[in-house]
Structures are given as C-alpha cells and as structure tokens.
Amino acid sequence: MVLGRLSLLFVVQLLFAASAHAVCPYGPTVRKIVSCKPGVSTADCRRVAEKSGCDVVRELELINAIVLDVPATKDKSAELELAAADEVKAVEADRRVNWLKALGEFRLPDIKETVAPFKAVLAPPAKAEPDPEQPWGIQRVNAAGAWARTQAAGVRVAVIDTGIDYTHPDLKGNVYGGANVVNPDKPKDYMDDQGHGTHVSGTIAALRDAKGVVGVAPKAKLFGVKVLDADGSGDYSTIIAGIEWAVKNKMQVANMSLGAEEGMDALHEAVKAAASAGLLIVAAAGNNGGAVGFPAAYPEVVAVSASDSTDKITSFSSRGTQIAFIAPGADVKSSVPGGGYDSYDGTSMASPHVAGLAALAAGLGHKGAAIRGVLERAATKLPGLTASQQGKGLINAAKIK
User: Helix (H, G, I), strand (E, B), or coil: what is residue 284?
Assistant: First the structure.
C-alpha cells in the first residue's frame, strides 16, 4: 500500500514537471526567436520550443520560426537547450527597439523656410504652371510624367509602419485594408496613433483630387500594416510578422520607413523570403549621417537616401554602398492624422517617393526584383554626389517603361 502511494506520488510529480514547461512562472520573461531547420514542420518547431520555454507568442511561418517567452531566470539554459535540439537552426534574442528613434527619427525642419524652386536637372516639369497639389518632392521625381501611362491602378502597396489614418480625406479612397500585428487583441485596428505611417502614405498614394497633396502613385491600393506602437517601438518579431502579412496578402511593394542599427538573422531571412515571393521592399537608409540601418542594409532591400531641394544629400542622411537611390527627404509635405498636412524631414520621407515610383512600375506589369532594374534605368546621377550617397541617382518617373 505504501509502495502504491509512492508510485502515485512519483507519477504526479512527473506530470507536474511535464506541464511546468507550458506555464510561465511568475516573474519577468525574455523573448526568443527560435528558427527551425528546413523540413521541420511548424507544429514540430512549436513542440520543440515549448519544451524549453513557456508561452508561444506567435508563429512566423514565413521563416519557419517560433517566438517564445522564457523565464528570465532560465534565459541562458533555455537558449543552450534549444540550440542543441536537432530541429533548431538558430536561437536569437527578440529585441525591442524604437524603430523611428533608431532610424534618427523624422522631424520638422529646424528653421521653416520656403523651398526654393529647383532646377529641372533630369526633366522639364510636367506642367508649364506649378501644380499646388504636388509637393516639391513629387514634382522633383516628375511623377506626373508617368501618369498618362500609369498611376499604379490596382497595385497593392503595404505601408509597414505605425498604421494609417484611413479617415484622412486624401487617403481614405486609396486605403483598402491592413492589419495590426502589435496588438493581437485588435488585429484589424491599424489606425495610426503616431502619425508617421500617415505621412508616409500620402507621399506614396494621396488622391489626385485637386485638394491637399497628391502622391507619386495616386491610384495605388494602400494597406496599413501596423508594426510599431504609438511611441514608434516594436519587437524584431513584430517587424517580421508585418513582412509576413505583406507576403501572405500578396502585396507587390512594401515601404519600410523604419530602421535599427543592428540586423539579425531572422529579419534577413524574412527579407529574403519576401524577395523570393515577389515582394519588393523599399526602406529608409537612416538619419544618423553614418552607416545604413536595417533592414535597408540588406542587399534584397531598396535603400533610399535623402536629398534636399538643391539636389544635395541632406546632412542627416545615412550613406554607404547599400544605397540604391536618392529621393526628396527635406521639408516634405504630406498628410497627417486628423485630416491635415505638415512638412517633415527624414529618409523616412524619401523612401515613400521610391515606393511610389516602384508602384508606377508595377502598374506597367513589372514584378518583384525586376522593378528595381526598371527604376535603375530611369535614374540619373546627381552631380557632385558619390555613389555611396545616391546609389544610381534620382529617378525620373517619365523614364519608367
């Protein structure tokens, strides 16, 4: 009888030990991205992860990975345990970053000045008289020079950012949906609570309605993918989830006016998977005046530096061999939440010019990586700038064929 009780107690202890992995103890946790090897199913990857951790936060099918919370007290041992599993390819810390501050953060010009009329170096203006609906940057890339042939009608563009104010009068006719991957309790609430994504969206595809501003690709379909909170912060895994959403929902172009100083393998895998799926990602180079940030620094991404109205690179713009193009990024006027408009500085403002140009190319039937070649053939080097400052140069929309 005593032996029977001891046996029962032993069984109960085993059951408790087996279930302990599934429930996080009280106390702080750390987040890991567990990437499994090719051929390992998502279910098996999850099962392996759960043996060493607690809560599975999300599955990242695009890169065959699991996002896992583990007790902080078990951080190192759990990482070693996971890394030793036959099914696991890599284990990385899922860091939280302010992707706007790390980028250098978009900002108002220090001194508000009227933008001096620029000289048409690459092409004459599309109209004899200035169009008040076209901010100087839209004019500088000669967006109207392509509109007789393409306005990107039907092209699906993901704005991977802080969301979009889809009630804005210059945007609501072009916003077709989106997702909130920051808050799983509100997956369809992609309303912009920060302002950054709304400003970016206007440069890409504000309506051509003789009011406010017009975007480079005024008939593109915008989709707001909210990966950053109201502070501009987000986990690496959230950014990856945003890219995954764009791929699964068959976006053709994605704009990522965000960045971090460091990359990580899981993020690069997501970028490569997106490229393989035919999604062209355009990203801001950064605003620290130094090295290009991530994801812009990855070779599969179109990295964009910022120019001013005199065709010079801005002092804040990052630069490097990864730069693909330069685009207007100083005193750029666009939409802001609440129905208004304002002018900001940043490579965040340059990137959507190129994303809009990519959408124009997609509207002519070009796909994926081929769009980059189309844009390169439509670009001209700006005098006085190096390749590390401007890449292939400034794109002229009239030359997009």
Answer: strand
Q: Are residues 326 and 209 in the same domain?
A: yes
Instruction: Kindly list the catalytic residues.
Output: 161, 196, 348
Q: What are the tens digits of pLDDT across the range 104-151?
A: 655 544 333 322 222 223 333 333 346 899 999 999 999 999 999 999
- Greatest CA separation for the chain: 101
339 Ramachandran zone, left/alpha/beta (phi>0; psi -120 to 50): left
User: 3-state SS of 118-142?
Assistant: CCCCCCCCCCCCCCCCCCHHHHHCC
Domain harbouring 369, CATH code: 3.40.50.200
Compute the distance between CA of residue 69 and CA of residue 56 in angstroms, rounded to an integer.
Answer: 6
Residue 302 lies in a domain: yes
pLDDT tens digit string along 341-389?
999 999 999 999 999 999 999 999 999 999 999 999 999 999 999 999 9
Q: Are residues 313 and 374 in the same domain?
A: yes
| Residue for token pair 């976006």 | 251
Q: What share of the chain is helix, strand, coil (3-state, %, to 5)?
A: 30, 20, 45
| 3-state secondary structure labels for all residues of 289-349 | CCCCCECCCCCCCEEEEEECCCCCECCCCCCCCCEEEEEECCCEEEEECCCEEEEEECHHH
- Which domain covers residue 52, as residue numbers? 19-94
**Residue 98 φ then ψ, to 5°:** -85, 100
